[in-house]
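Q: Predict the bound structure with guanosine-5'-triphosphate.
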Amino acid sequence: MGAHHDDVHDPAEPHGRALRLGIGGPVGSGKTALVAALCRSLGPTLRLGVVTNDIYTTEDADFLRRAGVVDPGRILAVQTGCCPHTAIRDDIAANLDAVETLEERFGPLDLVIVESGGDNLTATFSRGLADRQIFVLDVSGGDKVPRKGGPGVTSADLLVVNKTDLAPMVGADLTVMSRDAAAVRDGKPVLFTSIREDRSAHTVAEWVVTMVEAWRREHGEPHHHAAHSTSHGNASPAAAT
Ligand SMILES: Nc1nc2c(ncn2[C@@H]2O[C@H](COP(=O)(O)OP(=O)(O)OP(=O)(O)O)[C@@H](O)[C@H]2O)c(=O)[nH]1
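A: Predicted complex:
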C-alpha cells in the first residue's frame, strides 16, 4: 500500500485477522458518506467494524450511528486531539487499540474500516495501522487537485473522486481529473462516485470485496483474537454511545 516515506511502524501481523482499510482525504470530501455507503453495501455479507477519527468530538461516529448502517457497538470513535494525520501515521496507538478492541469484542471480523479526520493532500496511513487505503477527493476543490499530486493522491491503493453530481456546478472537468490522476498513479485505480446518487457506492464496494477476498487467500480465514496483551499507549478509544 501507499505508505508514507518515513513510516516508522511495521505492518501488524496479518495472519488470521480482518483486513484493515484506511479511508482518508480532505475535509468534507465524503469520507463519512463513503463509510456509511460501504456499511450499507457490505454489512449484509461481511463482518464489519468501524473506527472514526475526529479532533475534538465523536461527530462522525454519531452520524454513522444515526444512519443505522451498522450495529452501533461496532463503531468506535477516537478523539485525536491533534492533527488527524498524526493519529493515522505517526502516533497510531489510539487507533490500533480501537481496531484491536473491535476484533476482540466482535471477532472474527472480515473488515475494519478506519476513517481519518479530514486533512490535506499529504496525509496517508501508516502500514502499521492500515493494510490498504482509499483517498477521497471531491470535485468541488476544482479539477486541478489530482494534478497537484501529494502522497494521498499518488500512493493510495484506490483514489475516489466523489461528488460528481456537483461537477457541472463548479465547472470541474472529470476527463481532466481522470487523465491527471492516471498520470500520477502509476496504473493504480481511480473511481468516480456520487454518493448522493448511489448511496451504496457500489463500484467502491466491489473494489473492497476484491481486496477482502485477496487478503483472505493470502492470510487465511479470520479467527477470533483473545485480549491483546501489547499496550500501545495510554490513549483509549471512546465507545460511540
Ligand atoms: N452533492 C454531494 N454531496 C455529498 C456527496 N457525498 C457527500 N456529500 C455531502 O458532503 C458533506 C460532507 O460529507 P462527509 O461525508 O461528512 O465528508 P467527510 O470527508 O467525512 O468530512 P470530515 O469528516 O469533516 O472531513 C455532507 O454534507 C455530505 O452530505 C456527493 O456525492 N454529492
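A: The longest strand covers residues 48-54.
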